[in-house]
Structures are given as C-alpha cells and as structure tokens.
Amino acid sequence: MQLFFHENTKDNTFHLPPEESKHLIKVLRKTIGDKVNFTDGKGCLYSCIIIDDNPRKTILKIDNRHYIPDDDFYIHLAICPTKNTDRMEWMVEKITEIGVHEITFMYSEHSERNHIKIDRLEKKIIAACKQSLKTRVPKINQIRQMNELVQDKTFDTFQRFIAFVDKENDRHLIQKAEADRAYIILIGPEGDFSQQELELAFNNHFLPCSLGKSRLRSETAGLVAVHTLQLINQIKQL
C-alpha cells in the first residue's frame, strides 16, 4: 500500500498540486479509475478514485473514509538541536516513523544552535508519515527556552523525564515510565544540561532517567527515548 498526504479533504473531490500530480500520473503511472490511499494527517484514511489524470492537476474523488483512533498514550520529545542540521533532520524522520506525537526544540545553557527551519522539518515529517503509513502528522513546535519549558503547567498531568549522563543516574527510562500515559522527555545538547537546569527540572517534577550505559549523541538519545516509550506501550498490548 502507498499513502499520500492532502490536508484539505473536506469536500468529496479535491485536486493535487503539480508536484504530487506529476508523481502520481507520470512516475507511478496511475490513470482514471485507479484507487489511491490518502490521509489528511489528522487520523483519517481515504480511499480515493482518480477522475481526472491531468499530470499538473490530478482530481480525485473520495470513495471511502476510515478514522484511525488516537493512541492511548502521547509522546512529547523536547530536545536541544544539534549543530549539524542533517543529524536533527535524520532524527525527526526516524522518530516520526517509530511514532512520536509532538516535538519541541529547546535552547539551553550549553546549546550549539538556537534556531531551526520548521518548514523544512515539516516536509521531512510528512514524507516519513507517507513512507511509514501513518495517518497522524506529529506536531512540531518553534524553539523554546529550556527554563521556560520545564515550568509550563501544560505538562502537570504528564509523566516528566529528563535524560542526562551521570553515574548516579542509573535507572533506565523503561523502569520508570508507565503505559497509557502522556510523557514529555527532555534531551540536552552535546554538552548536556547545566547543574542549575537539572535542579530546575527536578523542582518541577521531572524525573531523572538513563537511556543506557553508552554515551549517546543527542539525536541518538532522542531516537532511543521515543522507541523506549513506544515499546513500553506495545508490550502492554501483547
């Protein structure tokens, strides 16, 4: 099965932009009467029929709608962007495939970068959703100060974690996280969080956690955190 993305599917018919039209008709060689699967990125899966195979403006008609329910849990990754943007883009792509619900980039005391290109990352996310057959597009937020984020009352009902490197911090995330919860986990920059930032997080009920014995790059830590939280919830269903 191949999955395509189109945000505005309120009407029974809709047309694709030129780039998507060309890919569908010229590359995949679809024609009038062929069925194509689409999602709006909000949980709906649409079975559509091509009614006009114009490679510049393909028109489709919705034949069937199917709503995919929300997960019983919610993973919010808050991470300091790396100096190398390619690594961060790779991480965003992979955690979308694994199953993240929300991403916030942070600026902390030891951060190497204080800006990101949201538009570019959103394109990476949509491409990853299409590839991994996901009907929900994760939310991605503009960069925020770490000190401000940890004091946000929005997360009062979340399980809150902060991952950092310390020999005393030896309890793995998988030992602390509970299934069927909303989570937020903080991942610091290559230089890790400062002691003052750690204390502020602890004072706001963020629990320290380990992601394993190895010293991980920031983007690897983000990937491990999302996978671990997904795994906890998948095991529960077995």
UniProtKB/TrEMBL annotation:
Its EC number is 2.1.1.193. CDD domains: RsmE-like (cd18084). Its main location: cytoplasm. It is an enzyme of class 2 (transferase). It catalyses: uridine(1498) in 16S rRNA + S-adenosyl-L-methionine = N(3)-methyluridine(1498) in 16S rRNA + S-adenosyl-L-homocysteine + H(+). InterPro entries: Alpha/beta_knot_MTases, PUA-like_sf, RsmE, RsmE_MTase_dom, RsmE_PUA-like, tRNA_m1G_MTases_N. Residues 16-62 form the Ribosomal RNA small subunit methyltransferase E PUA-like domain. The keyword Lipid metabolism does not apply. Residues 74-230 form the Ribosomal RNA small subunit methyltransferase E methyltransferase domain. GO terms for biological process: methylation. It is found in: Cytoplasm. Specifically methylates the N3 position of the uracil ring of uridine 1498 (m3U1498) in 16S rRNA. Acts on the fully assembled 30S ribosomal subunit. This is Ribosomal RNA small subunit methyltransferase E. It comes from Shivajiella indica.
